[in-house]
Amino acid sequence: MGFARTCSVALVGVEGVVVEVQADLEPGVAAFTLVGLPDKSLVESRDRVRAAVVNSGADWPQKKLTVGLSPASVPKAGSGFDLAVACAVLGAAERIDPRVLADIVMIGELGLDGRVRPVRGVLPAVLAAADAGYEQVVVPECTAGEASLVPGISVLGVRSLRQLIAVLTDEPVPEEEPEPSGRPDPMLAGLSMPGSGADIGGLTLDGHGLDLADVVGQLSARTAMEVAAAGGHHVMLSGPPGAGKTMLAERLPALLPPLTRGEALEVTAIHSVAGMLPPGKSMIDTAPYCAPHHSATMQSLVGGGPGVARPGAVSLSHRGVLFLDEAPEFSGKALDALRQPLEAGHVVIARSAGVVRLPARFLMALAANPCPCGQYRALGGECDCPPATVRRYQARLSGPLLDRVDLRVEVDAVTRNELAGYGPRGESTRTVADRVRQARERAAARLAETPWRTNSEVPGHALRTRWSAAPGALDEAELDLERGFLTARGLDRVLRVAWTVADLAGRDRPFAEDVALALQLRTGISRGVPMTIGAER
């Protein structure tokens, strides 16, 4: 009788659970039983592991073999357990000393020839192992850089099971032939996940190279972009086709400051699980930008899929920008499903396989035409849409959703003089991003002893009690509340935007003019203040 154990990690969403992989050999008819709530791809590991062990030059034990995955109540999915199962079997067969395997976490898929193939979710898996107190992990060689992002962990990257056996038994490590240069590497195929619902299109990892100075005119919209980036406020751009709504949204990620290391690990873990980590990039350190098509389903927006739910657009844009172009064309159910993550910063998905909590703290940008033809109220436009059609079109964005949008800006059509360059050229992305960075630093210093980092995250009660505005600054906003122009949530959001405007202007608290600009950006009603910030004002 032989027994050995090692460890691997089961992912539930973007969180990992350390799983003990146990192998037991007993006399009897040769058989291979795998228990512990495995899914179909994990059940198939029996054939992959057997072929990989034999093709790696080791003997397959001709006994009754039982492999258990503990805890048995946690669903296990994917092929990342192959390496741990193979080593546990070899430990039970005494090809490897079982004592060497006990404290090692192994993650990787095995090819039939014994090569170790990469799997998705290596970073969150290694993070889970580190949190559980493990210090050694074995991963496929091409994901060793991703695993090394976790501090305090010793990472061993291997190309094949033969190499791992040699390392664990103190034998000479054989050389593995790399793929010839110029040929596609099939090993990288395991890092992407086509057809999972995560590949929603329009995903980039920065907006650099797209300069805000390229946008002609649109002073109020440019101001809204700056305020949105500085405070993490959601924004809606409404105007006729060709006015520059998409151009503005595409340049929004470049205004955001670089991600901190903690934020970068969060974003990288989500993209690793979704199979959307860029090849050769072990860490994502810039704000992601996700722009799904308006035909996207609710599942692709908030996450889901068969079995354990996978990240959707709201999670892929975590710490970045989610841009919904042609927002009224999206499904009403899909748009209303955004209300929870907009408020809570995460999304909770319940499925028969379990409940998954996915991070989703993103900056949402909406773009919409005023009517189906896009010419309603446009200067010189001829709108043929009946009034009832216009009302129905605009009502596709529900009131509860719009109440969570801090900034609502009308984007007018570009004039001939602006297009010809007769007017003043707008500021560059670098200039605006520098002001945004300074404003975020002021907010971070003010919120240093709190769990919040941006003004958009601060609850209204804390804003009203801990950080007060200048005397009389909120008079106009409170009057709008009494008139029904603002809800209680809307008043809190106006106060958050006013704090962001004050941070951008270098003031220690909001004054009446800051609140007036915040009201103007939210309601679209002129309050007699210029639509500029800082030195321009």
TrEMBL record:
It comes from the Bacteria. GO terms for molecular function: ATP binding. Residues 231-370 form the AAA+ ATPase domain. Residues 171-193 are annotated as: Disordered. Pfam families: ChlI, Mg_chelatase, Mg_chelatase_C. InterPro entries: AAA+_ATPase (IPR003593), CHLI-like (IPR045006), Mg_chelat-rel (IPR004482), Mg_chelat-rel_C (IPR025158), Mg_chelatse_chII-like_cat_dom (IPR000523), P-loop_NTPase (IPR027417), Ribosomal_Su5_D2-typ_SF (IPR020568), Ribsml_uS5_D2-typ_fold_subgr (IPR014721). Belongs to the Mg-chelatase subunits D/I family. ComM subfamily. NCBIfam families: YifB family Mg chelatase-like AAA ATPase. This is YifB family Mg chelatase-like AAA ATPase. It comes from Streptomyces xanthii. The lineage of its organism: Bacteria, Bacillati, Actinomycetota, Actinomycetes, Kitasatosporales.
